Structures
1.
Amino acid sequence: MKKAATRRHFILALALAGASRPGAAAPAAGPPATLLVLGDSISAEYGLARGQGWVALLQERLTAQKIPLQVHNASVSGETTAGGRTRLPALLAQHRPAIVIVELGANDALRGLPLAHTEDNLRAMASAVRQAGARLLLLGMQVPPNYGKDYSQRFAALFAQVAQAQQAALVPFLLAGVADAKEPLALFQADGIHPNAQAQPQLLANVWPQLLPLIQKPGPAPVPGRRASPLPPPGR
């Protein structure tokens, strides 16, 4: 019995030495961190073939650049800020994302909802993201001039106000280069509301410069008592 025990200890010692010596195989990496996208039809590929939307193109770029982020698209056509605010806590608990992109607000304007409600919902979502220790990128929207100059300006401004108050990154206008293109109708579907497949690379081009800093370095300091979700560095 004593010889058998000694042999087992010897084998265990060899195994530990092998695991710690230079050049030994490293433990298997854990699953990639999650990037959560919470949006409406613009992010939900409305009217597009699956895989053509800007969110799908984002995942392709991350994979091509060996950035270990797995995109989870929780966007729903017709979603309002109130709906996103209701769904967000469960999504944060389930996916524990490192980064959250919120693309909501356009349907609030289309339905004529009070701007104060939209701003309050965006602030609540931004706060929830920070409480979860994640980094937030807010995608701003604008409404057509026929809504009136005062309303249009206040609607566009509320995204910047929320981003500043909550220390979030901001894309001022997701549809820049699309809605204000020389031939905008060529970049929209027949309804004149939803960008077509040709416009999706431009949407990603608007998002990427503001998203990349959140990937490369930590965002705002998390709320005391919370620890930011781990985000592995980009691959080489």
Note: The CA atoms of residues 119 and 158 lie 6 Å apart.
2.
Amino acid sequence: MTTTSELKPLLKRLRLGYMLNTLPERLALARRDQLDYAAFLQIILADEVTRRNNRNLEMHLQKAGFDQVCRLEDFEQPR
């Protein structure tokens, strides 16, 4: 049994199952950069926060019924 397969039920129980999608990549990063445990944990938790924020934004935009999304960054700056 691999570490990832042992983590799968635990992450799902904590509703963190989407971490499994990026876990191999993040583990490789941690090994390559010799990250300590706290730094690794910070990275994978930040990934999850970003994923949840993006999902919430998408849900709000869908509920609002906007045909297209315009961001402030998309507008030209006046000169």
Note: DSSP finds three helices and no strands in the chain.
3.
Amino acid sequence: MRQLFRTKSIDALLAASEQPDKRLNKFLGPWSLTALGVGAVIGAGIFVLTGTAAAGQSLSIRSVLHAPVIDLILHGSDAVSTVGRPGAGPAISLSFLLVAIACSFAALCYAELASMIPIAGSAYTYAYATLGEIFAWIIGWDLILEYAVSNMAVAVGFSAYFNDILESVFGLQLPQWLSQPVFIGGDYTGAVFNLPSFLIILLLTWILVRGVQQSARANSAMVVVKVIAILIFIIGAAGAINTANWRPFMPNGFQGVLTGGAIVFFTYIGFDSVSTAAEETKRPARDLPFGIIMSLLICTALYVGVSLVLTGIAHYSTLNNAAPVGNALKTLGYDWVRRAVGVGAIVGMLSSLLVFQYGQARIWFAMSRDGLLPKVFSRVHARHRTPHVSTWVAGLFVGIPAAIWDIATLAELSNIGTLFAFVVVSAGVIMLRRRQPERARGFRVPLVPLLPLLSITCCVVLMLSLPLETWLRFVIWLAIGLAIYFGWGKRSAAATV
């Protein structure tokens, strides 16, 4: 029992990271970290969910499993119905601002812990230092799921988008048996292998193994292209804004703004991945908080800009479709802007894939170094100074399922996993303030414990808004992880002490 709640001292964690055979290259600076955050947060969703949240949704809740947990708590079986989510209308820009404020609570908590504990592993490491080994295992196992499922979904989406680009631009098309998931919703499609999904993951994995310097430069280049594409849309389409489309600004009142916020919240997930780069940061106490907070600010500005322009060039009621930005630009005849948006969308997917694969490998590396995963995963390449084994294994762990299944229906597992990590990190700030108030902090969360408690509250409410089905899958995944921990990980971790 004592081992379950055993914590690792911050000094011991820092000493372990400096062992010659486990030491990673320290290359990243404040703007490289900011690019990592922007690369993770902004994907193709900026061009899709913005319109969906503005126009609203009609959801068919077919069974108890598909109903949000909070609705089941409040309404019981009456929660099973066809329901509508009122759109925010042009006030979707306010939804983005509100969500940014809510996310900032968690971002500030990450910034403080990252400045104190600049170790690869992010929330996993923070849990080990504050809550104990069993919680560290749970959050590490959860983060593996979060990063993997998220990238599987993006890789499948990239394949479809890549094939569409090949056809529309070059007049070519990969055969369906080589470019579609083998199974969609449990049904066999006739495909053999989704080759583009698999190859893009392997390509990005190879870049990551080559070194953090090359990976950061590749990500920074993609982020620049992505941001330029977004700015082209904002500036290029601004001249077509009809202010009449902004009236009424809040057609469904503040309830619509809140509902829109619930839909777009998950477009902000990813800023926490900056903290996984802690051991490869030159001045972590200063640069990690900068990267986390600056990436959130930049993403918020871009989201608000896109939402204002989009609802200005088209009436919000017309935006509930699969490609609201592209369709609005097509109606205006702005084909050159539409092409830029297409480039931005596909590059956005690539940068998200790269950053999440980077983060996932660092989780495997940190857990292996602590003895909770096999030692082979903490091997560091002699020349590139990267955790090459964990990077390749993480690549195959994502690439093979992405080539076989359409796992978009499991994407909400990434959401619940991320929110759970936010809760743990926020609790960690409160605990370390009480246990080690004198320890140096490169950044300090103001108003502790109020802001961390607000972060925990926001995250728990959003977790309860997810379907019961997602909760059951999450619990099953954690149960599998606990079985591995008690069957092997606990003994292995004890042997490293």
Note: The CA atoms of residues 88 and 257 lie 5 Å apart.
